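Quick log. Single chain, no ligands specified.
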Amino acid sequence: MFSWVDLGDGESFDAPSRRERMTRDQVLARGVTERAVLDALNEVPRHRFVPPALVVQAYEDHPVAIGHGQTISQPYIVGYMLALVARPGMRALEIGTGCGYQAAVLSRLATEVHTVEIVPELATRAARRLDALGFKNVTVHVGDGAEGWKEAAPYDAIVVSCGAPRVPRALVEQLAPGGRLICPIGDPSTKQQLVLVEKDMTGRTSLRPLIAVRFVPLTGPSGAV
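-> predicted structure:
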């Protein structure tokens, strides 16, 4: 169904082969070895989540603009983040739906995915796209990402796809015991660091710094509190 992409000028490319090379050369080669994550990246048609004019860039090793000042993250970063939080049967929350790509990958790792987007137009497009492509266990919400989505909490995994000055308190509160939260923190105009928050079975949390990253900022009235 998704094998060949028509570029509109008589040219086409083999999307599954590009997807396989992306996963092998950009993700696996950099140390992401979680089999379930690699399989999910190979399964989700990334080219269906970028603007038509940029479809040729879908499997390249960089973020791609999707409008409204937002991007679809670099494939390696998606794989790296999800490998750190993935576990069988998890319920997941994503902050920053964007085009819906990462939520689609998450849907192949989780039984249930809730994703929050502050830009209504992006949320509507993502919801339609995910539904059309058959990602039925994803629910898209419009809201302030710093507030999470309390109605469906707690979550075994929370993935934040936008940078904040610090980890939003509401998200930590919505993390289930034994759960993991990954979030970029720091000033988006200078540098950010990806951090992993783990909550043990008693509710105590710990924070581990990971790698330097660059994400668009977390926006909304609540901010990162």
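The first strand starts at residue 4 and ends at 6.
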